[in-house]
Amino acid sequence: QVQLVESGGGLVQPGGSLRLSCTAAGYELDAYAVGWFRKVPGKGGEGISSNSKSAGRKYYADVVRGRFTISRDMATSEVYLEMHNLKPEATAIYYCEVRTTLPRKSTWRDEGQYDFWGQGTRVTVSS
Fold this sequence. Notes:
Blueprint: E1 3-7, E2 10-12, E3 18-25, E4 33-39, E5 45-51, E6 58-60, E7 68-73, E8 78-83, E9 92-99, E10 116-117, E11 121-125
Parallel strand pairs: 2-11
Antiparallel strand pairs: 1-3, 3-8, 4-5, 4-9, 5-6, 7-8, 9-10, 9-11
């Protein structure tokens, strides 16, 4: 089982930025497609972004496109989610999730397609 660890969350004012990081203990993330999801307690999960293994395909939810960027560091086997111009509605727990299949435009948001996920990192956007 792949153990994922998210980090980088915290409290930020509206308009601020954060960079989330995802690593896999004992595994190379290069072998997986990686997605970022967020969840608010009491509500369903929301797909934010996904990145194929080669990083050649990237998908974003409309609500974050242009402000969030998913990227990979092949040297350290980390996947990042850079978030800029954060809004209060971005407050949630953010999870990275991995899958062995190629994420496609029609499937990247489907959490059922992902095989492993971490414990999440909390992001709070508030003044």
